[in-house]
Amino acid sequence: MKKKATLFLVVLPIMLLVVSSSTTQALVYSSSGFGSTGMDRELFIEEMKIIAGIESSALVKLSLLGGTNPLKVSSSEFEDVLSWAFILSDQTEYADYLLRRPFRAPDNATLLLEIDGSLGTDGSLNQSLRIAQLFDEHYNLELHWAGASSTEKGDYLYVFSSGSTDEQIELLTDEIKGDITSGYASAIETTDVSGSPVKAVFIGEDFRSATYFRGIYYVDPGAIVEENGEYTLSTNNLFGADLEVYDKLGVTKYSILKFRFPYLINASSITPTPNNVAPQISGKMDWIMQVPWKLRDMTGNFEVVYTMNQAELASSPRVSVNMDYDQELLNEDGILQMNYEVTNTGTETAENITISYPLGPDFIDMIVNSPTIYKLRDDVTIDEEFYSKTNATLLIDFGGSLEGLEDFYVNVTVLVFDGWYRNITDGQLSFWNESATEQIVNFDYKEFDTTPFGIPGTGSITVNATLKSETGLNTILTFLVAYYLSQIDLTDYIIAEDLDSLINDYGEALWTGIAYSVVAIQATLYEEQTLFDPNLQDFEYIERTVGPVGQEHTEYFLEAVIPSLAPNETVHLSWALENVTSQSMEFGVMRGEELEGSDGVKLITRKHNYLEMMQMILGFADDAGQLAYGRPISYYDEEADVWLSVGARFRYQDPEGFEYFGFSNGINFQLADDEAVINAHVELNQTSYKVGDPVTITGYIRNTGDINAENVKLYLFHGRMGNDWQIEDPDLFYYEEIGTIENGTQYNFEVQVDANSFLGIHPVYAVVEFDSDYGQEALPVYNFWEPNITAEFEGAAQTHEWVLSNMDWALLIPRTNERRPAFPQPVLDIETSVEIIIPENAPWEIEVTLTITNVGDAETHITITQFYNLTELSLLSKTTTKGSISNGTYFGMGYIRVEGITLYPGDSVTLTMHWLFLTSDGCYIPAAEIIYDSRFENELEGDKEGGMESLQVFQALDGSSQEAESSNWEDYGASTSTGSSAGADIYTGGQDKTRRVGSIDLLYISALTLLIPIVVLRKRKRN
Prior knowledge:
Blueprint: H1 7-15, H2 25-30, E1 42-52, E2 58-66, E3 81-90, E4 108-115, H3 120-139, E5 144-150, E6 156-163, H4 166-179, H5 190-194, E7 199-206, E8 211-220, E9 224-227, E10 230-234, H6 235-239, E11 251-260, E12 266-271, E13 286-290, E14 303-307, H7 310-314, E15 319-325, H8 327-333, E16 336-344, E17 350-359, H9 361-368, E18 372-376, E19 380-400, E20 408-423, E21 432-433, E22 438-449, E23 458-468, E24 473-474, H10 475-486, H11 490-495, H12 500-525, E25 526-530, E26 533-535, E27 540-546, E28 553-565, E29 570-578, E30 586-594, E31 601-609, H13 610-619, E32 635-637, E33 642-645, E34 649-653, E35 659-663, E36 678-684, E37 688-690, E38 694-703, E39 709-721, E40 727-741, E41 746-754, E42 760-772, E43 779-782, E44 790-793, E45 799-813, E46 828-837, E47 845-854, E48 860-869, E49 873-880, E50 884-890, E51 893-903, E52 908-917, E53 923-925, E54 929-934, E55 975-980, E56 982-986, E57 995-999, H14 1007-1010
Parallel strand pairs: 1-11, 20-31, 33-45, 37-45
Antiparallel strand pairs: 1-2, 2-8, 3-4, 3-7, 4-6, 5-6, 7-8, 9-10, 10-14, 11-13, 12-14, 15-16, 16-29, 17-28, 17-34, 18-25, 19-20, 19-23, 21-24, 22-23, 26-29, 27-28, 30-31, 32-33, 34-35, 36-38, 38-41, 39-40, 39-42, 42-45, 43-44, 46-47, 47-52, 48-51, 48-54, 49-52, 50-51, 53-56, 54-55, 56-57
Helix pairs in contact: 10-12
């Protein structure tokens, strides 16, 4: 049983043919820090991302790896710590500075510790408490145990949390700037960080790799300057000085600066020139300004000047390529001609349209090792009913002085014609004389002196050889038999005095003549023909060596270039495989059998059509190669047991030199059997849309084959367009079970969706899944020359196939030119209320109420987890207005979890938790962890590039609790984010009720730098 793979696993690897991206922190981090001399050198990485926010704001994200140890708290307690992170953050005064509002949370501190599992639960807990005390003393904190979990390797994770102040943020910022005294860190002012409405600072270390990490995040509300409709975001605006990269001799350094715009802009000036042009085409809007590896002179002002003129962006070329083949040409002339209709449906001229059709190794093998066949001449056909016997007589008569010798006479059937050829023009038998039923093919007479033989006088020998047939004689046969018999000279035997050999040599000459006549007949009536001869026509054959050093391999393409294509202009291109067997061809097979009970030969001639001939050839072909299936332009995926048909890839440019990519439809095709042949096409009704616009996607699935396509399923995808035909973040947004599409018919579809996915180029394509030859087994085939040998033609059996359509696209632009979110997103507003109940003559009670409201414009799914200390509190009750609620114990702490919550815009969920105090000293209730998802990517989060395989801080943070609720969503390249409510310190001494706010928001913007996947990306499915 062959393993079945999912649609994504099989289709996407074909489309994502080249994976290319800029070097990231994670890539550098995982690479060796050794120079070419092999000497160990200090590794340092700095990356600054400047993200344009709403209106004039921008977020500065500085990430640092390497340098000196950032730990100011020195202690042997860290001996068994595998990694740690200390975070100070504050977002109490948030405003609409960012594309997605963070959670409300005041000053807070979070300490994360990963401790070696060999210490056990008690040992690791005690060590974590001692380390928390060290941080308390150094930073003047009161950290409380907020949660714990274990890793897959059995190590322990502990989280401590408390409130903090701006002074502590300044202290940590100054420490970082003291550790890293040059580079990007030197440009940041401490008071800019502490005075920001949203800020965070963190330090940490991974002991296993001896890697130190630091991060600083803050909002500058006035980073973007506008003048006469032009906006400028620059490092000079942010820092008031030129920006310098890290410069320290003896250090392997890597510095990178990125400007990101979460909304679509029209960049009019980028200084210095970035190494990635026109990112607005892909919609990511992320410019890598410089990658100054080992360079020292990159000091300067970095800036992007842009406008919000979307109309200019909406003008672009849009090339569509549809691939098809001419079924009639194939059937009648045996030419598999692939035709390409190339049309520019855009508004600008497309230039240098380069179309590349990839040739797989099986395709090349089929051409190089194609069989040679002998095709029956077009002017003859086969009469299978014809039957004729040809007898040969040989009379040797002795006369004169040899009169007494006995004459030799034989009459035998030497050849039986079972089936023969007729001329199409006059219906006469080919090379046949029907009136000549008897013909002498040899006559020889010799007189000679017989005295040397002991017989006085003169003797004579007469030889008479005759071919006889009641239906006439084959003219080639009689000619060649006569020729070989005529080569015998009686004189030779008389001189040699060896008359006994005469009879044997006449017999051999007769059979030689018959054998050569069969060869001559076949050579005269058949024409040698090679199969699958390429005729490139408008294309060229290209070989390219690809792959990393040491793993190079050669790839083959057919490539054509169209210099330019004006709007609404169409060009047709073609390439072909010629000498493919056609339906009009008739094949004759001549084979010989020994006549039973005699030395004669039966010459059997039968006719076969093109299907029978190809099935025989392919049935006996090497079953390890694709030739055995007869599918030269499809790919077989053994893992999924499916045939894949993809089209040509192409690239082109607009007049400004920006590069675009696309692909044509695929088409399945099979030699030697009837087949359902699918051509799928999609088309968008506009060349550009604004967010929220209705989009009409029309298309067809055409069955140009000979039989029905069964179990047809249609999948429509969209995503983001990357370089080299990559579809990033593919999304299955429509699925339909069609059933049967009969041969010669077309299924039309129309789908309505809203334009609310990714900005920039928005590709749409279809995948059609179907079965051909439904229910059919492999076909037994016979060797025409040796009928007792049989084989199986696997290609005739039922096949499961996927065919890719063409790709169409439109440009998606924001609805307005404002610098605000282009997409509807969920925004959570979280309120925490705490009530202490003081009954008479009974322990105090506490009730905490969380109200979470979706104040955004899109739905979301959330999961809430609240930890509490079992030694301080006993749970009395828990209620929720939405979802399912449960409670239990985890790592010695109690927890309450609410799952299965869907919040539409304006919806709220209220969670009420009621505890009984077990101590008279009060308690600390950590913030609740809240996991929620958004259809669209959060620009505050990481690039999803590397660093996502390190630590799991909480099992609750991995989004797994949302699997059931989110099972109807598909991946939009979106994110599952983790936020928190506000924690509370509750003091029970006397009537005074004091509330101190904390948070376990594990820094939603620091996932990559911390090497902790706080932000978990989640695939989501839509029905």
